């Protein structure tokens, strides 16, 4: 028998080779990836968050935003560790009869990664403003607005049960009107707030591949060796703006703030650590005590106290450490 001239044998062998390689390279790894368990700290999505996930897919948010923290140093800004298959356990349920679980990983990084959006930006007010018109909170944003997720009502027609959005006057489509969030908008925000990277049980064994580039230091960080301006831009500027001007009705200004400029930085440090509820005039600020180290908080405070016309004495790491201990005692 001449193998090279037997067409049936050639086709059969090629087909079996193709089938074997397909199973080995595609099918078995796919089956293995399905055999994952959620991390102990993870919680199932609520009904509202699940509806928000559906709207997230419906609006095609993954066209611009990823949910995958790569194991490279530049992705440290988006998560405390590289992503795992377990991180997507509760989002792999079928959307409906015809649609499989959505692909949330994304491939375009036009906008920031959303893996840790719930920790990085937990405030509902910020997300609503950002969805209505991203330029209200991030002046340089190229993200499209989503006005169909909101309703414009005459101010006198707004109900007490309505969720009002504190849109600055220059962004209001009509004077004397109020922007009200729809159920869709509230569901989408609930889903975005739920995006929090769960801690790994035991010692972390997944680290980022370090970059060969050195991190520059900033003069406003004193001898802390940290760039306070970069840390501020990563954690604070989305609300308080890059120039410290804040946003009327939503986020207070830091430029000229009596709290920021005070000779005693204790209240400023405490607010950064545990957040602040300013709903009488502004929104609710999250605390950064569980996210940032004492050195990072001191660097941010120093940047705020020496920028935009502020001129106050530097904050030391020891002062931050003492206030952190004080806050812990208060919460016990």
Automatic annotation (TrEMBL):
Residues 203-223 are annotated as: Disordered. Pfam families: Cytochrome_CBB3, FixO. PROSITE patterns: CYTC. Keywords: Heme, Iron, Metal-binding. GO terms for molecular function: electron transfer activity; heme binding; metal ion binding. Coiled coil: none annotated. Residues 47-196, 223-308 form the Cytochrome c domain. PANTHER family: ALCOHOL DEHYDROGENASE CYTOCHROME C SUBUNIT, BLL4482 PROTEIN-RELATED. This is Cbb3-type cytochrome oxidase, cytochrome c subunit.
